[in-house]
Amino acid sequence: MNGFVFDKGIDITPVQSPMGFTYGAGVFGPEVEIRRLEDIRASLRDPQCKGPEQVYSIAMDVGKEEHRVLLNKLHLLFGVVTYSAGKLGQEPVRSQGHIHKISPYSGWSTPEIYEIWSGEAIIYMQEYAEDQPGRCYAVHAFPGDVVIVPPYWVHATISANPRLPLTFGAWCDRDYGFVYEGVRKHGGIAWFPIFNGSDELEWIANPMYDSSHLICKSPSDYISLDIRKGVSIYRQFEENPEIFLYVPNPALKAEVWRDFEP
C-alpha cells in the first residue's frame, strides 16, 4: 500500500497543522469539530495516558455544491475525519465508541459506510453496548477499502499505524447523532487495542464486559449493499444518487442486516 493514492472523487484535503480540511473549488464544508484527548479519556484503557492534544478532527456535511440540494432531499450526509499520527500511551489514536441514535426520519439506528482515504484503519464493532457485547469484529482496512457498520452496533475507528495520520470519508444519515452511555458505562469498548513493542496491534478484553470472542478480518465485499470495489463512494453516489438510500432508510435492506458480517 506504500505510495498508493486513493481517488476520493471529491476535492477535500486533510491538513494536520492546524488539524482539519481544505475544500477545493466547488466543494462545501463546515468549520471542523476537534476532539481532544481530554474529551475521550474516559473511553481509554489508561485514562491518564499522554498523547496528542488534538486527537481527531471532524467535518460533517461536506459535498459538491452541485449536490447540496440533492443530499438534503435524499437525507444523506457525507462526513470526513482525520486523525493525528502518534499514540495515546500504549493505545492507538481512536474514537471513543458509540451507537448511532434512533433517527426520527426512519425510526432506526442507522448504518454507516466508511471509506479509508489514507493511513491504516481498524473499524472495530460489537453488536451491543450491554454486559454481553455479542459478536465483536476488528476489520482491518487500507486506502480505498470500504467498511460498513450495520444499524444499532457499537463501533469505533482506530488508527492502526502510529506513524501515519488516518483520514476517511463516510456516508451517514442526515439526522445523525451519537449515543455514548452504554460504552462509557463499561469504561470503553469490549476489546482494547494496544501496541506491542513492535508497534503491532494486540487486543485485550475489557473486564467490564462478559466474555466474548474477537474476530479479526478484512472487509467483506458488500455486494448485497451495492458497493463497487475501486470506485469511491462519493463517485458512486454521483453516478447513481439513490444507491445509498438504505443509509437514511435501513429498512430498505432489512434482510441484509440479519446475521450481517462486516
TrEMBL record:
GO terms for cellular component: cytoplasm. Residues 51-202 form the Glucose-6-phosphate isomerase prokaryote domain. It is an enzyme of class 5 (isomerase). Pathway: Carbohydrate degradation; glycolysis; D-glyceraldehyde 3-phosphate and glycerone phosphate from D-glucose: step 2/4. It catalyses: alpha-D-glucose 6-phosphate = beta-D-fructose 6-phosphate. Its EC number is 5.3.1.9. This is glucose-6-phosphate isomerase. One of its GO terms (biological process) is glycolytic process. It comes from the Bacteria. The keyword Isomerase applies. Belongs to the archaeal-type GPI family. GO terms for molecular function: glucose-6-phosphate isomerase activity. It comes from Parabacteroides distasonis. The lineage of its organism: Bacteria, Pseudomonadati, Bacteroidota, Bacteroidia, Bacteroidales. Keywords: Gluconeogenesis, Glycolysis, Isomerase. The keyword Cytoplasm does not apply.
